[in-house]
Amino acid sequence: MLSLQLAHQLSGRHILLVGAGEVAMTRIPKLLPTGCKLTVIAPEIHKDMWKHFDVPEDDDTVEYTDKHWSPEKNKVFQLFRREFRNTDIVLHGNGLADSADAQSFLNGELDPIESYDHSKASGWHMILTCIPDPVISERIYRGAKLVLGQHVLCNVADNPPLCDFYFGSNVTLGKGGKPIQIMLSSNGNSPRFTALLKNEIERQFGDLPIGESVAKLGQLRARVRKISEENCPATLSKPELIKYRMEWIRNCTDSFGVSHCHEMNVDKTVTLFEEMFADLSLEQPDNETYMREYLE
């Protein structure tokens, strides 16, 4: 059975990590760059984890909340230096809407787009346990499903049947611009092999200017979309416009290829699109012309 691999958007969402040892340390660098509001609960903190808190290691504070936290800060939001408590399941609410609001929506009386305050129903988006006690770990998992509902995502370290998702090995290619993320997963069968494969991918592709390439392609795509939306012929339907735009961008990207996208002159390439869009043409210049006229 295969897993559905998704690029999960976690910015500003509450994530609970129970445990702060060696295994928990492997989760931190994957979670913090997402901009999530990470809460750590553990009586003992791994010495290397302190750099991820805005509180000194020798501080004896039992409960700490970063009042100046922001998604860009790349720091843990909350720390509780104690054992897990059952009430921690609802530390930030139960993630459920007020029953009256829910019924109003079902009755067609409430428009959640216009009049509903979504901050009223926060709760944990994900719960992760990284502790050596399998009984407590399962109790947290079962309790979360019981109280918050089956939709809450849980991950119990080293217990695949109690994992709604796997972390896998994550490869980030591109140090500048917009990096590309690749996830490798053996679906819990061999984390070590996926780690070896990750190292091999980094060895082969790590030096490519992928970040710059993706950044320029992102600029191109945004400008092409704006131009096409603002200058769409009346005879062209919305689905036809989207189809044309996607095919043009695909053909253009293929022409530059992995080796030259970072050298693209975005302004000249946008001008090319404007000229071709005027005639709804998809006849791209040949590769030699692209290399000669549309690189910086």
TrEMBL record:
Organism whose genome encodes this protein: Lachancea quebecensis
InterPro entries according to UniProt: Met8-like, Met8_C, NAD(P)-bd_dom_sf, Sirohaem_synthase_central
Annotated Pfam families: NAD_binding_7, Sirohm_synth_C, Sirohm_synth_M
Sequence ranges assigned to domain Siroheme biosynthesis protein Met8 C-terminal in this UniProt record: 210-278
Tree of life domain: Eukaryota
Keywords: NAD, Oxidoreductase, Porphyrin biosynthesis
Domain Siroheme synthase central: 179-204
GO molecular function, one term: ferrochelatase activity
Enzyme Commission designation: 1.3.1.76
Functional pathway: Porphyrin-containing compound metabolism; siroheme biosynthesis; sirohydrochlorin from precorrin-2: step 1/1
Example GO BP: siroheme biosynthetic process
Keyword NAD: yes
Gene3D superfamilies: NAD(P)-binding Rossmann-like Domain, Siroheme synthase, domain 2, Siroheme synthase, domain 3
Protein name stated in the entry: precorrin-2 dehydrogenase
